[in-house]
Amino acid sequence: xxxxxxxxxxxxxxxxxxxxxxxxxxxxxxxxxxxxxxxxxxxxxxxxxxxxxxxxxxxxxxxxxxxxxxxxxxxxxxxxxxxxxxxxxxxxxxxxxxxxxxxxxxxxxxxxxxxxxxxxxxxxxxxxxxxxxxxxxxxxxxxxxxxxxxxxxxxxxxxxxxxxxxxxxxxxxxxxxxxxxxxxxxxxxxxxxxxxxxxxxxxxxxxxxxxxxxxxxxxxxxxxxxxxxxxxxxxxxxxxxxxxxxxxxxxxxxxxxxxxxxxxxxxxxxxxxxxxxxxxxxxxxxxxxxxxxxxxxxxxxxxxxxxxxxxxxxxxxxxxxxxxxxxxxxxxxxxxxxxxxxxxxxxxxxxxxx
Length: 354
Description:
Elements: E1 2-5, H1 11-22, E2 26-31, E3 44-47, H2 56-67, E4 71-73, H3 77-90, E5 95-96, H4 101-127, H5 135-145, H6 154-163, E6 171-175, H7 181-193, E7 198-201, H8 206-209, H9 216-221, H10 227-241, E8 246-249, H11 253-262, E9 265-268, E10 272-275, E11 280-285, H12 291-301, E12 305-313, H13 323-335, E13 339-345, E14 348-353
Parallel strand pairs: 1-2, 1-4, 2-3, 4-5, 6-7, 6-11, 7-8, 11-12
Antiparallel strand pairs: 9-10, 12-14, 13-14
């Protein structure tokens, strides 16, 4: 299959060409501007007149014939509209790729809104009351979260959307951020509802990421990351979409806990200065999953959680080890009546303190 991409000068055209190469498709680029910055990205490239010029369809037909083109992709809405009307009569053998920019984008919006409507019901159920978060916000939140790499399950995100709006005023602290997927969800919901500042703690360090309780193949998986690149990926994601007050500490959990206990400001070049309260509204434990590491994180940070606050033990249901489950179960037992409510969502244990 040979695919014609027109106009090839657009960014979406370059992205499509890269993806088509992965499928093993031959691509031909065409543009109405001579200095096309993307011309070198295609197997072949030719100029075409602007779509409003006389002779455009004739030039298109000749190009299709020369290169044996069977399919045309265009990210340009007016071009798609013109060709959708013209091709059946002028070039019936040429197929337009997809539904076109108009329908594609409207479909995305409709899907996000429908997703948001469903999310309102789920968040209300987890929050045990009508959600304060509108459907458009939730639809956008879920859509954006999926652009960030991570293993934060949809149900866990919905549970966060359910419990954060009702949390007491205080800090939201996350131990273990990776690329920032759950960081983003916690931050945006907390900022929208005015709960408090979001603080992410992660050393982004290979030696500290290895989970020695887990099977060998899981331990080795950490070595596949360049942890400095993961750290930069966190900055890329959160610099683009975090809402202040937001910041991070590139420290071990123990180092950060000592800092948090005595300091009331966190500073970074990317996010400036953020004030903390020293009291935690929501604590998300998602660092090293070895039982000793989870127990240490809980011992260090748990005492800062406010009455009415929440503790989230990530990977309570984890097929590669039982550390998070054992620590969470002990915590719930030790809290006794103080653990007013607890439930599992997206594999994470959520514990609400009375």
